Amino acid sequence: MALQTQARPSSQAGPGPMPQGGKSPRAARLTPHAIRDQRAGLSFISPSLLVMVALIIYPLGYGLYISFFRTNLRNQWDFVGFKFFIQTLTDPAFIHSIGVTLLFAVLVVLGNLVIGTALALILNTEMRFRTLFRAILILPWLFPDVVVALIFKWIYNPLYGLLNYGLMTVHLIDKPIAWLDDPNLAFVAVVISCIWKGYPLVMILILAGLQSIPKERYEAASLDGAGPIGSFRHITLPGLLPVLIVSIILDTVWWFKHFTIVWLMTAGGPIDATKVVSIDIYRVAFQNFDFGRASAMAVIVFVICLAISIVYRKLVRDNES
Amino acid sequence: MKLTKPLAALLGLGLAGAVLTGCSSQAGAQSTSAPANAKVTLTVLSPLVVETPSGDVEKAYAAEYQKLHPNVTIEFIGVPMNDAYAKISTLATGGQMPDIFINSPEFSAKAKQLGIVADMDKLLGADYLKGFAKAPLDQAKLGGKTQFAPYFTIPTGLLYRSDLFKQAGITPPTTWSAFEADAKKLTVDTNNDGQTDRWGFAMVGTNDGSGGSRFIPVMRTFGAKELVKSGSSWTTQFDSAGAIKAFKLYGDLVNKDHAVPPGPLQTGYAQANALLATDKAAMMITGPHTIGAILTQNPALKGKLAGAPLPHAPGEKSVSVLGMLGWSVSQDSKHQQAAADYIKFVLDKKNQLAFNAATGRFPTRNDALADPQVNRPELKGFIAAQDNAFILPAVPYYANLQVIAGGDYQQVILNKMTPEQAAKDAAEQTKKSISDNG
Amino acid sequence: MRSGANPAYYVLLSVAALFVLMPVFWMVSTSLKPETELFLAPPRLWASSPDVSAFIRVFTDYPFVDYFRNSLVVVSASTVISLAFSTLSAYGLSRFEFRGRASFLTFLLISQMFPSIMLLIPYYKIMETFGLVNTQVALILTYVSFTIPFCSWMMYGYFKSIPRELDEAASIDGAGRFATFARIVLPLTLPGVVATAIYSFVTGWNEYMFALILTSSEDMKTVPVGIGQLIGQYKIQWNDLMASSLYAIIPLMIIFIFLQRYLISGLTAGGVKS
Predict the structure, then answer these.
(1) Is the pLDDT of residue C181 over 70?
(2) Cβ neighbours of A51 in C, within 8 Å
(3) Helix, strand or coil for residue B361?
(4) Does one domain contain both C192 and C246?
(5) What is the pLDDT of residue A100?
(6) pLDDT grade for C5, boundaries at 50, 70 and 90
(7) pTM for the model
(8) Alpha-carbon span C152 to C49, nearest angstrom
(9) Which fold has domain A83-320?
């Protein structure tokens, strides 16, 4: 009911913010069917469009705008042009943290995908205790980031942590290991915690995607003599692709921007082994209150995320054709 | 029914979205001047109100104050300390500052620059200001103007297990070489299973404010300052001989003396104090409030913890940092005088002592400081430390320096840099911070 | 794929379940420990005498009842709105060719790419301009805007997998566009709707930073803000923190258990092909 009342009135307002390009000659050439399509499409997207335009355009513009100022956002607005961009991009520490962040995001997303897809495929088969397993395996996603970070930090603790205790009990190690003190181990430890938190989303989405693939296709394929691998390649994968691509893009972008778990577990350390770029941005913005510089860094991250998504989509398109 | 309202608002917002261009903040529709007995609501942004046990104490002040002044309502905006400055800066940019907000030496330069602090000298009055202990009040000033009424201090010193010291026949070290020797002596295998299970020194080695705010005073006891005013600008002594010794000390304690429990780089304040509470370490650099925190985890340690000033290098002096918070009245407040009155109430002797009893943090007013409750023997060392307090340089990027120091002592502990290299690196990064903000 | 219960599957699932449950077990164990047993080396797996007082304290010492009420109102509303809007837009995107379609899809993706920490202040300014600071509406709007892009894209993917002939058949039967969407196509994407609903709910339920900034009074705070307040500068209330986190996932678990059968049923191919 709410849907209908929403869709109708806004359908008139719909074309307003769209890049209509005026009454272009092309519009005149549209067939009546195409015009109907145009109006229907716009009215269907208008509620989302309104929310997004109202709540995203201004913040994005604001972020871009303040990146050209040295500002405390209240009484200091000194225009600095591209100074912060140049300083940031020529800062080796920033470049290093972009590298760390990329590696971090790639590993977490890869982990999420492999574990999430594997579990979804298994959970998609007819088996006993499926409901129970599904409920257990979704759990990590339900906990707030803060709690995940703190509990893992504790588990990794060399003295009273569960991990060393377990490994020592089974005599895999004879001396506690300070997991988060070694730059390489710490990086891996943080990635594992993030995968723990991150894979269930991928699992759920793929599970839902698998359910949308009609069973008949599998039956037809097995009649044609396709084995399980063949039917995975030719039916499951293409069927999942639309959902998968967006999941991968967004998962990468989200983890690229991720802050809480890393911040609470290592604060970017040891040294700068886990210093993801969000930690830099947070420190500059809310510890140094240098909002313009922080915004310039954020804009750079934005551009990188954009580039990542373009690369992904290009890869997919090349694959499809 | 909950749905219709947001939907309506959503529509309104969507339609108005186009109008949203300048987005200047409108002042709230508050009454401009309140007559003497009119209803007054004071909003107080406090990180302590959401913590225990300090929250109960603060709520009790507020309740009592409201009883004494029926026309006043105190409303808390509770924000965890870790997010308090993010919240304040947001409120400040939106022109929605509460009447009273938390302030600190780390934040005051920024708050002043934002223009959100009222004239505290005028509001509190010169006579009242005389009642503050000198060190905290000095720390609360910028360019001679009081930025906040100091609420409590946590002087940094050396917290140690007095029983273990007695057993080992040692007294609190006054030099770093004695400290290293003591730390080694206190690193023992208590149950003779061939593995060390108590260490001399619980080092806070995280590369954040928690670790950096401990390293910097240590460095100062070697005579090296993170920032020195030279003329109108700042320079650093991070690469001086003293600083190199401080970096070396951190590395040696871990790698040469083996006097630090495993995992120092991930040992933040909370973990370090758990190490003392669980009898895994004998010393740590911290303030008096830690005694209470440790005792709640392990009541058996009652009477076995005491404080001393930080050791120092030969020929140098011990120093201390005053970890502290204070209250500022907001420049935008419509009830500045009422707000100041409430702050004075919070800081009266009875309330200061109640806060001290609950949290172990030191009062800031002379009357409360003179009370026997604060002058207990185990706290003597911290009271002495308070007199050595140095004033934190009031630069908006100060938190950066703590992080820089943190990263570089981690380099030394992990043997990725020599103390000399770390010192040089810290100095370079500090100079960059200075010039970025110049 | 469909070979039924392969023993290797059970082994894999059990290993995964162990990986999941170990930290969860540690949370439960921590929530039941008295303060004196929290940090012991070696750790004690289970409290010497389990103490449920943290679970009681959460409701007696803190206004978690209010926090839960706020979270439920805010997150339910934002989930419903977000789902309604995104299914609509996804349907439009998957069914109609119109100018701006591709730009809108790209815009939805792009909206996710700016570090959200830098969006805090502009969001606050918007809400303040409309007098919405410290209201549930502000959080509802915020979460709707956070979840629409992902939900729209997901639903777009699910809608695309449904043949368009179905819509055409319905429109021949005289159903209007909206009726075709709501009665014919939407029900077929139930697993997708459920998955995005769970996503939207979980995202809102665990959001911390914006809830912290956009609310100020105790009676408007949400569960994550309440949980965050148990992490003090000098001290973490470990057992209360764990107890409240365990409470916090209960509503999510209930919703998940209730909805999960729809994750699986939903679409049968016969329904599509007919």
Answers:
(1) yes
(2) 85, 141, 144-145, 148
(3) coil
(4) yes
(5) 95
(6) low
(7) 0.86
(8) 50
(9) MetI-like fold (1.10.3720)
